[in-house]
Amino acid sequence: MVDLSYQVKAGDTVEVKQAQVYKEEPVYYVLNKPRGVISSVSDEKDRKTVLDFFHHIPERIYPVGRLDWDTSGLILLTNDGEFANLMTHPRHEIEKVYVAKVEGQATKENLRPLTQGVKIDGRKTKPAVYQIIKQDIKSKKSVVQLTIHEGRNHQVKKMFEAIGLPVQKLSRIQYGTLGLTGLQPGEFRRLSKKEVSQLVNAAKGN
């Protein structure tokens, strides 16, 4: 008789059709995602996905959260479901830093609403922190760094659009305690135990 409520314990052997099943070792990677790459394990239109950079990795990893097709930068990949849920759950508010090239002149005046929260999709965002990196008066374009603690769909683009500064180019440069130092677009590395612990602690601290 098969007991479907049985909880597998340490030391148990699990078999499916006489083939033993092994639990994969948890692995954690950070990838500098280029623009034009889908944050998914597959794509029905046969476009390039983040997993195309990990052909030689034996574990069945998947992206933690997502970055838009036309957004570049830092994305995590893992086979640890508990870790992925911890990183993406709204209540944990992990800090994320983006750099946006926008149309128009970014000023303290027109960026101020971002620090107070702007309404997108019928809900007000939580206060963000900005830094004006560059202003090009001739081309009427600006580069702004924005730090947020949420992960709503297309959030950064919608926040800038709400204040009249449409995003032309967007990149995520930091996720919690992690940055992209040493990683060119398309390159990745495995996280250390210390880095994983720092991310977990940052999430549980909120």
UniProtKB/TrEMBL annotation:
What does UniProt give as GO cellular component?
cytosol
Q: Does the keyword Disulfide bond apply?
A: no
GO molecular function annotations of the record: catalytic activity, acting on RNA; pseudouridine synthase activity; RNA binding
- What InterPro entries does UniProt report for this protein, alphabetically? PsdUridine_s_RsuA/RluB/E/F_cat, PsdUridine_synth_cat_dom_sf, PsdUridine_synth_RsuA/RluA, PsdUridine_synth_RsuA/RluB/E/F, PsdUridine_synth_RsuA/RluB_CS, RsuA_PseudoU_synthase, TruA/RsuA/RluB/E/F_N
EC numbers: 5.4.99.-
At the top of the EC hierarchy, this enzyme's class is isomerase
Q: Which Pfam families match?
A: PseudoU_synth_2
Q: What's the superkingdom here?
A: Bacteria
NCBIfam families from the xrefs? pseudouridine synthase (TIGR00093)
Descriptive protein name: Pseudouridine synthase
